[in-house]
Specification:
single chain; 91 residues; alpha+beta; 2 helices; 18% strand
Length: 91
């Protein structure tokens, strides 16, 4: 499993922080030590806690895209609209 980590250098120290989690930031004298400290904490947390992926439905019109693709009623409505549109076209 991979995690996005931000490495920064400031004042002769290195910080390694997990993107999206302000509480997981380790400052050490070397880059390798900062990364190792963060990695150790992540390993510990993964052993004690559960990590899941959540799928969030988009809001607004984008959330409707494809939702009714297999709905026979929608197909019927579309066919009626197309027939009406075609009958109103000038010949």
């Amino acid at each position: 499993m991979t995690f996005p980590v931000l490495i920064q250098q400031s004042g002769g120290q290195f910080s390694a922080s997990l993107i999206g989690s302000a509480e997981l930031c380790f400052i050490r004298p070397s880059r390798a030590e900062a990364i190792a400290a963060l990695q150790g904490e992540l390993v510990k947390r993964m052993a004690d806690e559960e990590l899941v992926n959540l799928e969030i439905q988009p809001l607004g019109v984008c959330g409707l895209a494809g939702r009714f693709a297999d709905d026979p009623e929608l197909q019927s409505i579309c066919e009626q609209i197309y027939r009406q549109r075609d009958s109103e076209k000038p010949q």
